[in-house]
Task: inverse folding
Protein backbone atom coordinates (compact mmCIF):
# COMPACT_ATOMS: atom_id res chain seq x y z
CA UNK A 1 0.00 0.00 0.00
CA UNK A 2 1.31 3.40 -0.94
CA UNK A 3 1.82 5.98 1.73
CA UNK A 4 -0.24 9.07 1.04
CA UNK A 5 1.55 12.38 1.44
CA UNK A 6 -0.20 14.59 3.94
CA UNK A 7 0.13 18.34 3.50
CA UNK A 8 2.09 19.91 6.34
CA UNK A 9 -0.14 21.61 8.93
CA UNK A 10 1.37 25.03 8.17
CA UNK A 11 0.24 24.87 4.53
CA UNK A 12 0.24 22.28 1.77
CA UNK A 13 2.78 24.14 -0.32
CA UNK A 14 5.39 24.35 2.42
CA UNK A 15 8.51 22.32 1.85
CA UNK A 16 8.66 22.99 -1.88
CA UNK A 17 12.26 23.21 -3.01
CA UNK A 18 13.65 24.32 -6.32
CA UNK A 19 17.35 24.30 -5.43
CA UNK A 20 19.19 21.83 -7.63
CA UNK A 21 16.32 21.38 -10.09
CA UNK A 22 16.72 22.11 -13.78
CA UNK A 23 15.50 25.51 -14.97
CA UNK A 24 13.25 23.76 -17.53
CA UNK A 25 11.57 21.69 -14.83
CA UNK A 26 11.07 24.67 -12.51
CA UNK A 27 9.61 26.70 -15.40
CA UNK A 28 7.29 23.85 -16.42
CA UNK A 29 6.20 23.31 -12.81
CA UNK A 30 5.51 27.03 -12.32
CA UNK A 31 3.52 27.28 -15.55
CA UNK A 32 1.77 24.00 -14.75
CA UNK A 33 0.76 25.18 -11.28
CA UNK A 34 -0.66 28.37 -12.82
CA UNK A 35 -2.71 26.38 -15.31
CA UNK A 36 -3.80 23.78 -12.74
CA UNK A 37 -5.06 26.30 -10.18
CA UNK A 38 -6.89 28.22 -12.91
CA UNK A 39 -8.59 24.98 -13.96
CA UNK A 40 -9.62 24.10 -10.38
CA UNK A 41 -10.53 27.60 -9.17
CA UNK A 42 -12.63 28.25 -12.27
CA UNK A 43 -14.25 24.80 -12.40
CA UNK A 44 -17.35 25.76 -10.41
CA UNK A 45 -17.62 29.19 -12.04
CA UNK A 46 -17.37 30.74 -8.56
CA UNK A 47 -14.06 32.21 -7.42
CA UNK A 48 -13.91 32.96 -3.70
CA UNK A 49 -11.50 35.10 -1.72
CA UNK A 50 -10.18 31.97 0.00
CA UNK A 51 -9.53 30.19 -3.30
CA UNK A 52 -7.72 33.23 -4.72
CA UNK A 53 -5.58 33.64 -1.60
CA UNK A 54 -4.47 30.00 -1.49
CA UNK A 55 -3.95 29.78 -5.26
CA UNK A 56 -1.67 32.82 -5.20
CA UNK A 57 0.18 31.53 -2.13
CA UNK A 58 0.84 28.12 -3.72
CA UNK A 59 1.71 29.29 -7.22
CA UNK A 60 4.01 32.08 -6.03
CA UNK A 61 6.36 29.42 -4.63
CA UNK A 62 7.22 28.50 -8.23
CA UNK A 63 6.24 31.68 -10.04
CA UNK A 64 7.58 34.59 -7.97
CA UNK A 65 5.52 37.73 -8.40
CA UNK A 66 2.29 35.80 -9.01
CA UNK A 67 -0.66 37.90 -7.84
CA UNK A 68 -4.45 37.89 -7.83
CA UNK A 69 -4.28 39.98 -11.00
CA UNK A 70 -2.14 37.29 -12.65
CA UNK A 71 -4.65 34.67 -11.50
CA UNK A 72 -7.51 36.64 -13.07
CA UNK A 73 -5.60 36.65 -16.37
CA UNK A 74 -4.90 32.92 -16.06
CA UNK A 75 -8.60 32.24 -15.45
CA UNK A 76 -9.39 34.06 -18.70
CA UNK A 77 -6.85 32.00 -20.64
CA UNK A 78 -7.33 28.61 -18.99
CA UNK A 79 -9.31 27.12 -21.87
CA UNK A 80 -6.33 27.71 -24.20
CA UNK A 81 -3.58 26.60 -21.81
CA UNK A 82 -1.40 23.64 -22.88
CA UNK A 83 -2.22 21.84 -19.63
CA UNK A 84 -2.38 18.32 -21.08
CA UNK A 85 1.17 18.52 -22.45
CA UNK A 86 2.46 20.12 -19.25
CA UNK A 87 0.89 17.43 -17.07
CA UNK A 88 2.39 14.72 -19.28
CA UNK A 89 5.82 16.35 -18.85
CA UNK A 90 5.39 16.69 -15.07
CA UNK A 91 4.11 13.11 -14.83
CA UNK A 92 7.36 11.90 -16.40
CA UNK A 93 9.54 14.10 -14.17
CA UNK A 94 7.91 13.86 -10.75
CA UNK A 95 8.38 10.88 -8.48
CA UNK A 96 5.43 9.49 -6.53
CA UNK A 97 5.94 11.85 -3.60
CA UNK A 98 6.04 14.84 -5.96
CA UNK A 99 2.82 13.75 -7.65
CA UNK A 100 1.13 13.30 -4.27
CA UNK A 101 2.39 16.72 -3.15
CA UNK A 102 1.03 18.36 -6.30
CA UNK A 103 -2.34 16.61 -5.99
CA UNK A 104 -2.56 17.53 -2.29
CA UNK A 105 -2.11 21.17 -3.28
CA UNK A 106 -4.82 20.80 -5.93
CA UNK A 107 -7.16 19.38 -3.31
CA UNK A 108 -6.31 22.19 -0.88
CA UNK A 109 -7.24 24.76 -3.53
CA UNK A 110 -10.45 22.82 -4.25
CA UNK A 111 -11.33 22.89 -0.52
CA UNK A 112 -10.23 26.49 0.14
CA UNK A 113 -13.80 27.80 0.15
CA UNK A 114 -14.96 25.06 2.51
CA UNK A 115 -16.65 22.80 -0.03
CA UNK A 116 -16.06 21.15 -3.38
CA UNK A 117 -18.58 20.51 -6.09
CA UNK A 118 -18.38 17.73 -8.66
CA UNK A 119 -16.79 19.98 -11.32
CA UNK A 120 -13.90 20.81 -8.99
CA UNK A 121 -13.49 17.16 -7.98
CA UNK A 122 -13.44 16.13 -11.62
CA UNK A 123 -10.77 18.74 -12.39
CA UNK A 124 -8.53 17.46 -9.56
CA UNK A 125 -9.06 13.84 -10.64
CA UNK A 126 -8.13 14.73 -14.24
CA UNK A 127 -4.89 16.32 -12.98
CA UNK A 128 -3.96 13.25 -10.92
CA UNK A 129 -4.69 10.80 -13.70
CA UNK A 130 -2.82 12.94 -16.24
CA UNK A 131 0.19 12.73 -13.92
CA UNK A 132 -0.01 8.94 -14.27
CA UNK A 133 -1.69 8.12 -10.97
CA UNK A 134 -4.38 5.43 -10.80
CA UNK A 135 -7.94 6.51 -10.03
CA UNK A 136 -7.70 4.67 -6.69
CA UNK A 137 -4.48 6.44 -5.74
CA UNK A 138 -5.90 9.80 -6.79
CA UNK A 139 -8.91 9.14 -4.53
CA UNK A 140 -6.67 8.22 -1.59
CA UNK A 141 -4.57 11.37 -1.92
CA UNK A 142 -7.64 13.56 -2.30
CA UNK A 143 -9.30 11.95 0.72
CA UNK A 144 -6.22 12.44 2.91
CA UNK A 145 -5.86 16.07 1.80
CA UNK A 146 -9.56 16.75 2.39
CA UNK A 147 -9.32 15.27 5.89
CA UNK A 148 -6.25 17.40 6.61
CA UNK A 149 -8.08 20.50 5.37
CA UNK A 150 -11.10 19.71 7.58
CA UNK A 151 -9.02 19.12 10.71
CA UNK A 152 -8.49 22.30 12.76
CA UNK A 153 -4.82 23.06 13.39
CA UNK A 154 -3.84 21.56 16.75
CA UNK A 155 -6.79 19.13 16.85
CA UNK A 156 -4.55 16.19 15.96
CA UNK A 157 -2.17 17.03 18.81
CA UNK A 158 -4.70 16.25 21.52
Result:
Amino acid sequence: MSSVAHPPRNGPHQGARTHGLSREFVDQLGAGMREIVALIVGADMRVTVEERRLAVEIVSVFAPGYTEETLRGDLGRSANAPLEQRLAYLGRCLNLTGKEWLLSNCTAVMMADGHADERERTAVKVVGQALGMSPKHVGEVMSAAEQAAATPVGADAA
Remarks:
- The chain has seven helices and no strands.
- The two ends are 27 Å apart (CA to CA).
- Confidence is low (pLDDT under 50) at residues 1-19.
- The longest helix spans residues 23-43.
